[in-house]
Recover the amino acids of this structure.
């Protein structure tokens, strides 16, 4: 039997799962599991994406494309292994209209597996003719097959979603792109010559070891000022990141909610308390990292935000 029909939704008829050989059945199950990862037990609820959700998805995807869905074939049997109870799994065929990220390019048509929630009547949403943004990983040996980076990595296209996606990608590939934060290093606190005057510097741990530090300056009678430095030297012009930018996302979504004790183990008790207060000032100023899809949140640099930081 030609098993290409399983991966070619343009073929006529239903997906012939019951007639597959044992080897092809195993390959099908492995493919379904690999393309979707373990399906979320709570199902793939259709919630609006926040900026953090979009950054989670887009920043970790080697391929990001705009496409129009031509056909979506519902899968049955063993190809639905791991599928949540109220979801349906489809093999989607889409025509690419724009490649936003991807060094190897894409063929005119792409295919990927997608889990979608059923409505109250047990019916799946209509997928054909939808315009979407797809964030994915190429499947080795199958140039037209993609693996979504997360269950919610097919994003409904809107002008706003495209603008936000392009903005995140532009920041992600820039020469001065902020590195991924993996933790907090040592903190230092220096008291000034005047009462109430002080400066705290907190070094962050990053992927690749790129230097990043938080700096908080307090002066008597003034509102505390803080900034983030991306480099060895503290830039006098440095300032806090604007909300809904990649630097804000790296900090707000991946810093722990409290300064770790290991960061102040070499400080006096008073200096440690002052450094912790300044760190909390920064966390409060950054604001919440609201997410509607925590599954995606766990995939960026293997760091998981604390419950206090993610919504």
């Amino acid at each position: 039997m030609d098993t290409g029909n399983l991966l070619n939704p343009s073929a006529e008829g239903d997906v012939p799962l019951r007639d597959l050989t044992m080897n092809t059945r195993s390959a099908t199950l492995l493919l379904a599991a690999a393309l979707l990862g373990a399906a979320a037990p709570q199902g793939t609820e259709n919630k609006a994406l926040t900026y953090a959700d979009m950054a989670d998805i887009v920043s970790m995807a080697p391929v990001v494309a705009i496409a129009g869905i031509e056909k979506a074939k519902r899968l049955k049997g063993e190809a639905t292994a791991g599928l949540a109870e109220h979801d349906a799994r489809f093999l989607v065929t889409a025509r690419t209209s724009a490649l936003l990220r991807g060094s190897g390019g894409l063929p005119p048509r792409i295919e990927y597996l997608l889990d979608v929630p059923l409505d109250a009547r047990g019916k799946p949403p209509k997928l054909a003719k939808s315009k979407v943004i797809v964030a994915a990983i190429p499947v080795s040996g199958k140039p037209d097959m993609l693996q979504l980076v997360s269950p919610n990595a097919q994003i409904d296209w809107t002008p706003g979603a495209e603008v936000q996606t392009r903005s995140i990608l532009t920041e992600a590939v820039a020469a001065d792109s902020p590195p991924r934060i993996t933790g907090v290093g040592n903190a230092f606190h220096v008291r000034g010559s005047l009462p109430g005057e002080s400066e705290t510097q907190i070094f962050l741990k990053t992927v690749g070891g790129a230097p990043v530090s938080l700096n908080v300056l307090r002066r008597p009678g003034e509102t505390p000022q803080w900034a983030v430095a991306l480099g060895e030297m503290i830039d006098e012009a440095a300032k806090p990141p604007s909300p809904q930018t990649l630097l804000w996302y790296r900090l707000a979504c991946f810093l722990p909610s409290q300064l770790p004790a290991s960061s102040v183990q070499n400080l006096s008790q008073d200096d440690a308390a002052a450094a912790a207060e300044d760190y909390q000032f920064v966390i409060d100023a950054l604001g919440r990292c609201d997410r509607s899809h925590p599954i995606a949140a766990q995939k960026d640099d293997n760091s998981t935000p604390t419950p206090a930081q993610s919504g």
Notes: The longest helix spans residues 269-286. The mean pLDDT is 84. The chain has two domains: 3-173, 181-297. The beta strands are 63-74, 87-101, 109-117, 131-139, 142-148, 154-156, 181-191, 198-206, 212-218, 225-229.
